[in-house]
Amino acid sequence: MTSGVLQDESEDLGFFAPAEPEQPASRDKENSAVRSDDAHPSLSAPSTQTRGLPPPPPPPGAPSLSIAEQFAPSVHDIAADPISALAASHWSRTVTSFDPAVVESIWRDQIIAHGLSLRKVMLLEYSQYLEKYLWPHFVAKAKKGQQASSVQHILSIVLMVNEKFRQRVTGVWDLFLDDKSRFSGLVQTVQKLLVTPSNEVGLDLQRLLLAFLTHIFQSLEYDHVRSEGMKLVSLLSWKCLTAKRRQLQFAEHPERREKYDAAEAQLAGKKGSAKEKAEFARNFFSNLIKTFLTVLHTIPESGAPPPHSIAYCERFLELMIDLEAQLPTRRHFNIILHDHLVIPICEASKLAKRGRLFLEKNTAAPVVMPKDWGSAGSESGGLFVQLLERLKFYAHFEIDDYTGVALTSADITRQHYERIRKLQKLIFMKFRDTLEDIALVNAGSIEKREGLFARFRTIDEPTLVALCEELGIRTRKVEDPVESYNRMFLINVLISYFEKRQSQIAKIKALPLYPDENLLFDETTVPASQYFSNVHPVAIPKLNLQYLTIYDYLLRNFELYRLETAYGIRQDIEEVVRHLAPKHVIDRHTGEDHTVFTRWARTAMEIETFHMTEIGPPKVMENKPSYVKADVRVNLQNYTGAAQKEWESLKPHDVLFLISFRMEPELPGWLQAQSQGQELTGSDFRRRFGIRAIRGCEVSELLGDDGKPVEDFESAKIASAENGNKARITGARRTFRVLLDTNQYQIDINNKNEDVYSTFNVLMRRRPHENNFKAVLGTIRDLMETDLVVPDWLHNVFLGYGDRASAHFSRMPNTIRTVDVHDTFLDWEHLVESMPTLNIKSAEKASLPHPGPPYIVALPDSVFQGSDNSNVTERQELTSTGEKRKLESIDDGENSSQDENTLIVRSYTPANMGPYPENVPKRNTVRFTPKQVEAIFSGMLPGLTMVVGPPGTGKTDVAVQIIANLYHNYPDQHTLIITKSNTALNQLFEKIAALDINPRHILRLGWGQEELDVEGTWGKYGRVNAFLEKRLQLLAEVDRLAMSFSIPGAHGNSCETAGYFFTQHVQPRWKRFAKRMAKSLGRASGVEVLDMHFPFKAFFSNAPQPLFKAEDTFEAAWEVAQGCWRHLKSMFDELEEIRAFELLRTQRDRSNYLLVKEARIIAMTCTHAALKRREFVQLGFKYDNVLMEESAQILEVETFIPLLLQNPDPDTGASRLKRVIMIGDHLQLPPVVKNMAFQRYGNMEQSMFARFVRLGVPTIQLDAQGRSRSSIAALYAWKYPGLHDLPSVSESRQYQMANPGFAFDYQLINVRNYKNRGETEPVRHHIQNEGEAEFVVATYQYMRLLGYPAEKITILTTYNGQRELILSLLDQKCSWNPLFGNPHAVATVDKYQGSQNDYILLSLVRTKTVGHLRDIRRMIVAMSRARLGLYIFCRTKVFQDSYELKPVFDILSQRPTDKLWIRPKEEYSDVIDRPVDQTGLKTGKNGSWQAEKKHGATPVEGVESMVELVQTRVAKQVSMEVPQESG
Question: What are the C-alpha distances in Å from 1271 to residues 998, 1024, 1263?
Answer without folding.
Answer: 41, 49, 16
